[in-house]
Amino acid sequence: MLEAIQRAGSIHAAAKELKMSYRALWGRIKATEKRLGKTLLVKSVGGASGGGSRLTPFAAELMENFQKLNHSIELQCDQMFETDFQE
């Protein structure tokens, strides 16, 4: 979700990219913020210059740490597969 919002620059565009409704994506963001006790997005209201959303520094760090963890897990799984399932 955070990656899509960062790429798209808005919740609406991210929801389209993820094939979700705006309401569903917004609900997930709000639920996550509530669980974490931290704000994830800085929102700007539309108008002549248009609206949008950007990640807070906390959200950007959270996303970066998740990406590192995910990459590490993928590498470990690949290594385990090669070790345990090679003929």
Summarize the structure in words:
This protein is mostly helical. The chain has one domain: Arc Repressor Mutant, subunit A (Orthogonal Bundle), CATH 1.10.10. 67% of the residues lie in helices and 9% in strands. It has a two-stranded antiparallel ribbon with strand order 1-2. Helix 1 packs across helix 2. The N and C termini lie far apart (39 Å). The mean pLDDT is 92.
Quick structural summary:
This protein is mainly alpha-helical.
What order do the helices and strands come in, and which of them pair?
Elements: H1 2-8, H2 11-17, H3 22-36, E1 41-44, E2 52-55, H4 57-85
Helix pairs in contact: 1-2, 2-3
What would the principal axes of the Cα set say about the shape?
elongated
- Identify the strand order in the major beta sheet: 1-2
Query: CA-to-CA gap between the ends?
Result: 39 Å
Q: What is the mean pLDDT? A: 92
Helix content: 55-70%
